[in-house]
Amino acid sequence: xxxxxxxxxxxxxxxxxxxxxxxxxxxxxxxxxxxxxxxxxxxxxxxxxxxxxxxxxxxxxxxxxxxxxxxxxxxxxxxxxxxxxxxxxxxxxxxxxxxxxxxxxxxxxxxxxxxxxxxxxxxxxxxxxxxxxxxxxxxxxxxxxxxxxxxxxxxxxxxxxxxxxxxxxxxxxxxxxxxxxxxxxxxxxxxxxxxxxxxxxxxxxxxxxxxxxxxxxxxxxxxxxxxxxxxxxxxxxxxxxxxxxxxxxxxxxxxxxxx
Amino acid sequence: xxxxxxxxxxxxxxxxxxxxxxxxxxxxxxxxxxxxxxxxxxxxxxxxxxxxxxxxxxxxxxxxxxxxxxxxxxxxxxxxxxxxxxxxxxxxxxxxxxxxxxxxxxxxxxxxxxxxxxxxxxxxxxxxxxxxxxxxxxxxxxxxxxxxxxxxxxxxxxxxxxxxxxxxxxxxxxxxxxxxxxxxxxxxxxxxxxxxxxxxxxxxxxxxxxxxxxxxxxxxxxxxxxxxxxxxxxxxxxxxxxxxxxxxxxxxxxxxxxxxxxxxxxxxxxxxxxxxxxxxxxxxxxxxxxxxxxxxxxxxxxxxxxxxxxx
Lengths: 259, 311
Fold this sequence. Notes:
heterodimer
């Protein structure tokens, strides 16, 4: 059989479409270095001024810091919850098991606008002021399906006999979890944590409903879209953040593949 | 609840009595561990996922926003009656579903050759090419949509470029703030994502099937229609639903590039919770959307075994 059939058109399509996918993003890069504040051609001259101005813009940096804290807190919580549900799913049998798993995965399906308004109602009913906390809580819910899927697929790959062996040797179950199971799934937990972090860091649809007076970065970015002359600074920051997120995602991918 | 794996091989060196005592202690220990890892997720999900949805359902049976949010009320079907009586909501739900259908089909059709190339033609560089494809998808969602807003605006990049090179004299106003802009932007957003489940399905096909088909005289076209396509169908369907479902609930993209002419169902929900501040009505609209989505998912899980795609 001829294994090297001509695949040039297919390769052309692939790289053509991939190039198209990059174009809008590359354009943002370009305009973050354009000396004129208006986002249109012709490009006047290239400059790093917007990046310099960025570090003097307190409000923007504060919004970025808000996003960092929300992402850090919610991703740690989502990873802990995801680990717990994974162990419950694969190492125990109990009556409400399927309901618990379904509930943990369901946020993947529920439209964000629906979840957003439902949480808005919850917090209003209990007179809880909207804050970074309320955004963070929402993010743990939407990040849980991801952390669960990543950690559970790693845990499923391990023979439960390893745990039995540990217990035969006299370890009680908490010790076995701590000394055998957690070290084994640790790479998956790191990958899950990074994934949850990027999910939260980038999340806008829920945060718009739930952020109070302290905006997260996407919410702040959205509120500033009206002011055209601030746009280049925002884009400069967005470009920096994008590179940060990208680095995290690549590390997460690496960790997921650790043998 | 049954305990996690219990020792199957007795350690014969220990006296029997100690083993029994040890096992009893271990049982208590295991039960404590179970509650320790069972309660946090159950409480968290009940409090912040189940309860809010139930409260929203309850809200949809209120007649108005008057009074304290937490007080008892007489349930009424007024809100649902109002939705049912107003054709424009159903029309918008239908339009949103059709839009999501169009976006889902387009993204899948455009992504299929990408996945095909990666799975069957790219060889040992496939991993690198896949990363190349996914980088745009990992880029900030809001940023990518913003990029399209800047691209399509009247003073935006496409217009200014066309003016600059003299192809047009007047900026084209029709590029932004309509449903087409929403559709184009969302297809752009979803293409890399749609390629993933198709790729997973294509990678599962046993290569010897192609050889067998070739030996039996099947031409490449027939190999494709008789082997590749049917066997990749679960991945294709999964890709479709993975695009379709988040798209029906989409409200951010219409807000940014769609304008009022490009609004989708999610936008009216958002409006009733922000500008119009009619939460009971907004809740009824949300419940309708949630029910529709869940029915669709139930239907989708009948069609496809999602589990096998993520192994």
